[in-house]
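Support case: S-adenosylmethionine complex. Customer-provided input:
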Amino acid sequence: MSVDTMSSEGLRDAMVDELVADHAAKGLTMRPEVEAALRTVPRELYTPGVPPEEAYRSDTAVITKRHGDETISSVSAPWLIAEMLGQAADALDGGLTGRHVLEIGSGGYNASLLRELVGPSGSVTTVDIDPEVAERAVACLAAAGYGDVTVVCADAEQPIGPSRRFDLIIVTAGAWDIPPAWIAQLGEGGVLVAPLRTFGMTRSWALRRVGDRLVSQSQRLCGFVAMQGTGAHEVRYVDIAEGVHLRLDEGQQVSAESVGGLLSQPREQVWAEVSLPPRTVLADLDLWLAARLADEVDQVVVLSAQQEAVDADVVTPAWRFGTPAALHEGTFFYRSALRWADDLFDLGACAHGPNAAAAAGQMVAHMRTWVDAGQPAPVLHVLPAQAPDGDLPAGTVLDKRHSRLVLTFTPA
Ligand SMILES: C[S@@+](CC[C@H](N)C(=O)[O-])C[C@H]1O[C@@H](n2cnc3c(N)ncnc32)[C@H](O)[C@@H]1O
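Agent response - structure generated as follows:
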């Protein structure tokens, strides 16, 4: 059957088959109950006006609201929804059945999947800051037969109701910090799944509540529309050359001119001389590099580039959508594109500036340590802002507005 003539059910099954294959390619296994929910909920009813073939693309979000060039609301991409639901179910002992769930950021589709997963003895509440989005979610949920999902219009930075407690809070907008309300609304052992930016890089973290702190159980590479309201935290970009940008965190200052000037100086390329298989989780390496370099360099930043700039060899980043980079004593350096030999690859770093060879060598040394240590995966600990230093686990500390984040690493 051609895509043109495929029924919604056929499109849905094809999408889920792709999602199962995508999981397998990443070394993940989709839980059967998540697969069953994905095969049940009619996604096209949450994307009115969009051709069903687009609604059922496994790798694409459907944009539902923009402010100028910026996307402020969407029905999230199925691959990401599927991974986050898997993270939630894995992190909750006994899975999702009978759980009480709060979703932050509404579109209706994910809330319906959650409704399927928690079953009749559970409940789903979804909150959105935007009245238009909330109204739309109410209408779509009713049309799809999920009218028992509660939709609230509010800024989720604050608790949605006095003394409400949830087993799971799943956040579907990009956060920079963990507001106290999210921890306070979780029961002991409850799980928060949230896309959180650390060192300018966003990961979906599944975090379990233990007393007044959270400890991560898993994390996945992801991207989301930005959080609005009192927890909004603008991402700033500095253009350092045509099609080449640095993503900066709060308080960071970079002179576009001076870093741009460095790019015209000779490039030093250093290799780690390692041989790694394609499934190596380089997102873990990137957080390792940022955490290690944070104490050693003037600034850790994120490099991104347009394809044209990469093709023109202006920069050769490992991943053009966000590669860890650093500035130190007038030298700029970053993780460079992989070097393949047969089916294995080597890691490398590029540098420009007066200490280019040493800087690239420093980054590569951290890559080798990561490989020698068994490619450790990051673990995130979230503590209240007032936690004394003595209470923090040994790791890299990132102080945010409401919380103290500590990154530690455990061998895979
Ligand atoms: C990617 S969309 C949600 C997708 C949805 N969960 C789905 O089923 O596909 C992100 C939503 O988060 C909402 N949002 C952003 N900041 C918020 C906040 N502080 N409180 C509640 N909702 C917020 C936006 O209005 C937007 O509709």
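The pocket of S-adenosylmethionine is lined by residues 72-76, 103-110, 127-130, 133, 155-157, 172-173, 224-225, 227-229, 231 (CB under 6 Å).

Case will auto-close in a few days if no follow-up is received.
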